[in-house]
Amino acid sequence: MADSANRPTKAERTSAAREAARKLHEEQAAAAKRKSLFVKLGVIGAMVLVIALVVMIVVQQRSAAVPESGGIPNGGNEHGGIVLVADGEGGTTVDPELTGDRTIDVNDAGEQAPQGTEPAPRGLDESADPAQLVVYADVNCPHCSVFDGQYAEQIEQWVADGDVVLEQRNVAFLDRGSSTNYSSRGANALACVADAAPESYMDFSNALFAQQPEGELTNAEMADLAAENGAEGLEDCIDSMEYRPFAQFAHDAALADAVPGTPSVWLNGEVWDGQADPDFAVWAEEKIG
C-alpha cells in the first residue's frame, strides 16, 4: 500500500497544475511572438524585393527611352547598317561616301512583321559588284560571337581585297534579357567608333564580339576597349548614347523585315543557311567567285 504521507495534497496538485498551465501559456505566447516576427520580417523582405524590382524596371525603362530621330554616323546608311569597304592600303574602313551629316527617323523603320512572314531585308542587291554581304548581329549573342571568331578574319580579307562590301546591321534582339540594354549600348558604341575612327571599326567590332562570353561591359569598359583598338576619346559618345536612334532604327527595321535572329547573313540577296551549308566561308567563296 502506498504511503499516503508522501502524496501531494489537493492544494499542492492544484498549484502544480496552475504552474504547468502558466509555463505552457508562456511558451505558446513566445512561439506566437516569434512567428509574428518571422511573418513581419518576411513581409518586409518581400516589400524590399518588390521595391528593388520596381526601381530596376524604372531605370531600365528610362535607359530604354529613345528619341524619335537622331544622327547617322559616318559609314552608316539609311537601312541602319555600317558599311565597310577597302581602304586602298590593304585594310578596311567605313564607306567614306557615307558621311555623318544625315539624320534618321526611327518611325520610318516600319511595324514588326507578323509571325511567319518570310524574311525580306531591305536594301539587298542581287547583282552587286563587289558582292554585298549583309550581316545582322547582336553584341550580346553567343552565336554571333562564334560566327565572328570563325569568319571575321576571312570577311575582313574579302573586304580589304575589294571582293566584298560588308554591311553590318547591329540589332538589339537580346535587350529583353539585359537589365542594362547591353545590345543597344553595344550597337551605339559601334556607331561611335564608325563615326570617329572609321579604320578602327573592324578591330573594335571583333574585340567586342570576342569578349561576349565574359559578359556585359559597362559604357566605360566599352570606351576603354575602343581605345585599345585605335578609337580613343569616345567616352562621351558612348555614355550619352549619341547614336541610340540609329541603333533603334536598325533593330526595328530588322523586326519589320522579319529577320529571324542573329547572326543572319545575306550575300547578294541570297540567305546563308547554316544547316545546309555549315561552312560559311566555303559557301560564300562559291558565290563571290
TrEMBL record:
InterPro entries: Thioredoxin-like_fold, Thioredoxin-like_sf, Thioredoxin_domain
Top-level taxon: Bacteria
Membrane spanning residue stretches: 37-59
Any matching Pfam family: Thioredoxin_4
Residue ranges of every copy of the Thioredoxin domain listed in the record: 107-243
Keywords: Membrane, Transmembrane, Transmembrane helix
Region feature Disordered, mapped onto this chain: 103-125
Protein name according to UniProt: Thioredoxin-like protein
Organism: Zhihengliuella halotolerans
